[in-house]
Amino acid sequence: MRRVAIDLGERSYHVCIGEGLLDAADSFAGLPTSATAAIVSNDTVAPLYAQRLKAVLQQRHARVLDIVLPDGEGHKDWSTLNRIFDVLLAEGCDRQTVLYALGGGVIGDMTGFAAASYMRGIPFVQVPTTLLAQVDSSVGGKTAINHPLGKNMIGAFHQPLRVLCDLSTLSTLPARELSAGLAEVIKYGPIHDPDFLAWLESHVEALRAGDPSALAHAVARSCEIKAEVVGADEREAGLRAILNFGHTFGHAIEAGLGFGVWLHGEAVAAGMVMAAELSARLSLCDATLRPRLEALLQRAGLPVRGPRLGAADYLQHMRVDKKASAGEIRFVLIDGLGRAVVRPAPDALVAEVIESLCA
Asked: How many Cβ atoms are within 10 Å of 55's Cβ, its own excluded?
């Protein structure tokens, strides 16, 4: 097991990375042994892994509840969140109840938000089963649900007690989902680590093929970078916003098409291409970055052109972005390879980039 520390004082925890963690009692050592635990999963992941997790948890908790939600980004909303609360209340769960989020980013975000809200806060553990969740959404304590007008606009910061990244769960991940996760891996290169970007260019085919050693390195290095950023800026007051490279454009794609039409990682991939082009047009980075990123993303099986929603539609959705200030859209841009900044850009220039890079 490889451990990456998230240093947040009294809220510190570890991201544990390895094979077979789901079935190993040692993976759960030091976590609370409350009377009740609840596994929150979805109808895709639960049949694969819920009973295995439950078997381990029953050694630690007298009662382990199952909460199975419908799968997909389109269900990341109030009504689905209430299904978690319905079970917790009906079963008399108290403040010592521990929630286990077993699934991808949607399950992790909703379970975390439920844990942040139920009785004003209960503990939870992330058990991510998708690459995207292992390298990004499960780490750092950002929890939320979507609103029709904006992605992840209703939520809370609530850190997990631990993140258990069992790499063996990636073997059941569909190829499209694996590629979507690679988008969140690739983003770490331009914003923080050029050497990692070069490594990804050399190993992207191995990653797509599910090579265990390549995946282990990609997950660990991604978590190390995120740990450094989150440790310095837990609540996204400044530095942490760089982790949203490509997300301002990407979230507009998701909202504009309807949540769930494109996977999050697919939208972020097209968004990173637009953000790289915008960076170059603002003379922040070399013009070669966009084609370099495009080539890598295409090899990863990801789209590099956004849908033609129209620049006005993109801009409307981007004004709801959490980085916007007083209606001014702020973008994560590359200020030289390995360094990101957050700054505004003229609407007219953004519109030009959108129209030039949408299929």
From this structure: 12
CA angle 235, 130, 357 (to 5 degrees): 75
pLDDT digits (tens, 9 = 90+) for 258-311: 999 999 999 999 999 999 999 999 999 999 999 999 999 999 999 999 999 999
Is 236 tagged catalytic? yes
Is 184 annotated in the active site?
Answer: yes
Find the catalytic residue in 177, 184, 224, 294: 184
198 exposed, middle or buried (CB, 10 Å; 0-12, 13-18, 19+)? Answer: exposed
- Residue 264 annotated to the active site: yes
For CATH 1.20.1090.10, the residue range(s) in the chain are 175-356
Active-site entry in 158, 162, 221, 264: 264
Active site residue 120: yes
Question: Pick the catalytic residue: 162, 217, 226, 290?
Answer: 226
Q: Identify the CA nearest to 152 among candidates 264, 261, 232.
A: 264
Q: What is the pLDDT of residues 166-195, one digit of tens each?
A: 999 999 999 999 999 999 999 999 999 999
In CATH terms, is domain 175-356 a member of 1.10.10.10? no
Domain 2-172 = CATH 3.40.50.1970 = yes
Mark whether 75 is an active-site residue.
no
* Catalytic choice (42, 146, 152, 244): 244
pTM to 2 decimal places: 0.94
Domain with CATH 3.40.50.1970 in the chain: 2-172
